[in-house]
Amino acid sequence: MKVAVAGCCHGALDKMYETLELLQRRHNVRPELLLCCGDFQAVRNEADLHCMAVPAKYRHMQTFYRYYPGEKKAPVLTVFIGGNHEASNHLQELPYGGWVAPNIYYLGYAGVVRFRGVRIGGISGIFKSHDYRKGHFECPPYNQQTIRSAYHVRNIEVFKLKQLKRPIDIFMSHDWPRSIYHYGNKKQLLKMKSFFRQEVESNTLGSPAASELLQHLKPTYWFSAHLHVKFAAFMQHQANSKEELPKATKFLALDKCLPHRDFLQIIDVEHDPSAGDSLEYDAEWIAVLKATNSLINVTPSSWNMPEKNGLHAKWDYSVTEEAIKEVLEELNHDLKIPCNFTLTAPCYDPSKPQKHMEPVHTINPQTTEFCAQFGLTDINDRIQQAKEEGSTRGEYEEEEEEEMDSTGSAEEPSEYNTDNSGLSSINPDEIMLDDEGGDEDLSTCSVDPSPDHPPDFSASFSDIRIMPDSMAVSSDDAMDSTNEEPEKSGVSKLVEEKSLSERPLKRIGGNENGNSGGKKIKRRNQAIYAAEDEDKTE
């Protein structure tokens, strides 16, 4: 089964789907599934735009609003995770996942689904240590803090995913797993992006939470976005026991969706030919949600997940085969996700703009139905109750006053080393890119296939290494041999929209607070949303 994968979409749905249609016409390649690794921007109206953590001049409606009411329909089943440039109020309606438009499915804060026997998981948002141990307490209308903390990864989602025992075929995260750059062509990455060197050598680039999940889940494929660069790696995992078979993960970070850029990736995935073509629930994941339901926290108070440290009566929330069987019986062995999409907000009308439309906290019927079916807590309903009592808002305002640091972020201890990615700019989550060469097309092979021939989706990975338990790599290891030749890598060839001919993978990388010495730098959102910007330098 052919699967298309995209990086940051930034609301350019028309462009993605047009590229897929051109691919089919020119090369007779028709993916059955499209995956998007965040920054999808499911913006329905002006109120949604106000809930995106970007400067006002970069808030553009794009094209999702035409898919939301069914004016257009996605030509291929699309599954996506959230990033850090999202209409957070919209995605917050679906904490356990759901349809944001016909044929477009959001995985939720974290989720696992199945399609034609392929098991697909993902986690939304980006990692920030000061919010990692908090509950999901945010709700619209957001303030300057919650508009960002709403998309920060929480420890409960990581904890849930770590309860999974069955193999994962594909996993998605928005930001990169920390240390993954040590398993690809690091020499080329640092050659082209030298200002990443400090973060690579200090092993601080990327998400430690995603790294923990990578080490635990060991999926066949892992896709990320966020840094707007292409980078491939191959990670050989250590076996936990003599009986366990060796596992390896093919990692690929994807570029952003732009015209005349090769932003799509096509992979061939083994599937179950007898399985239907509907998106399905994953029985083990549903069982894990039921088992961890009591751990839900909707306050800004920080707390740790249960551990085997003598402080918790229970720390293992993984599920038994019997619990999975019970889920199957509840569903009468019909795992098909219902197509129960409903409109929950007015749709943007270009002829009647409403610039002052305000966001409201909405309880989505899909979530209500899902929670009722499986006996789960409706997070938004719980937040609404707390909000009405006045407890959540009051606690957070007090916390802001007591713990605000110079960048406007409440900093708290974490089980991970404190991330150093905060900037003293408008959005402390933004990533700094080289002003000169942030978007150049870098490749490790100078020969492109003929456009007259269809793409060959075979690929190879290089730099196979054993993953250490801690995933910590010394600064000495961050330097590749000077006589090492760059090697091709990737799970498949990259498809460019303009020519739809193959391109080799690009070996470049990014970081959250990279320093390019004397070079001029600009914030990541400027690179995303516009070519001209008055605020180029920090």
UniProtKB/TrEMBL annotation:
Residues in Lariat debranching enzyme C-terminal domain copies: 235-380
A Pfam family assignment: DBR1
Principal subcellular localisation of the protein: nucleus
Keywords, comma-separated and alphabetical: Hydrolase, Iron, Manganese, Metal-binding, mRNA processing, Nucleus, Zinc
Chain intervals with Acidic residues compositional bias: 396-405, 431-442
Compositional bias ranges of the Basic and acidic residues kind: 386-395, 485-505
Cofactors: Fe(2+); Zn(2+); Mn(2+)
Any GO BP annotation: mRNA splicing, via spliceosome
Region (Disordered): 386-538
Keyword Hydrolase: yes
Record's subcellular location: Nucleus
Gene Ontology CC annotations of this record: nucleus
Biased composition annotated in UniProt, kind: Polar residues: 415-427
UniProt name for this protein: DBR1 enzyme
